């Protein structure tokens, strides 16, 4: 059974930092591209960042670039999202997403349940 479990969300003041974690089980982690997405109620889900396996190449949405950092530890089946200089508009539920990267994992797509981040004074 595949599980993606996010943690690390919470309430933080503007300008503060949080680090989200997502632990994966039931998949061969180093064969999956890992993404973070976020969603505000009533709005479409928004892609935030991606990290590839092996190369560790990363890409960010323009509105989080230079503030957020995605990383992965394949020995722990974990992907992280370090969020700095947080703004109220970063308030959202944050979701971890694993997408199969070729071979037998092609087409596989798994999601976590989300962790809430609230940026407010």
What does it look like?
This protein has 121 residues and is mainly β. Helix content is 0%, strand content 51%. It contains no helices and 11 strands. Strand 5 and strand 6 form a beta hairpin. The protein starts with a strand and ends with a strand. 29% of the residues are buried.
What is the average per-residue confidence, as pLDDT, rounded to a whole number?
96
- Terminus-to-terminus distance: 40 Å
Query: Share of helix among residues?
Result: under 10%
- What is the beta-strand fraction? over 45%
Uncertain residue ranges: none
Gyration radius over CA: 14 Å
Main sheet properties: 7 strands, mixed
Regarding quaternary structure, what we see is: single chain
Quickly count the helices.
Answer: 0
Q: Could you state the order of secondary-structure elements as H and E?
A: EEEEEEEEEEE
Number of strands: 11
């Amino acid at each position: 059974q595949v599980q993606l479990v996010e943690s690390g969300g919470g309430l933080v003041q503007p300008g503060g930092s949080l680090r989200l974690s997502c632990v994966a089980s039931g998949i061969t982690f180093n064969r999956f591209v890992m993404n973070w997405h976020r969603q505000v109620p009533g709005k479409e889900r928004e892609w935030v960042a991606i990290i590839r396996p092996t190369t560790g190449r990363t890409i960010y949405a323009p509105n989080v670039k230079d503030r957020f950092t995605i990383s992965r530890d394949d020995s722990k089946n974990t992907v992280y999202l370090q969020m700095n200089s947080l703004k109220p508009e970063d308030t959202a539920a944050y979701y971890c997403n694993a997408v199969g990267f070729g071979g037998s994992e092609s087409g596989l797509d798994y999601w976590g349940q989300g962790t809430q981040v609230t940026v407010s004074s």
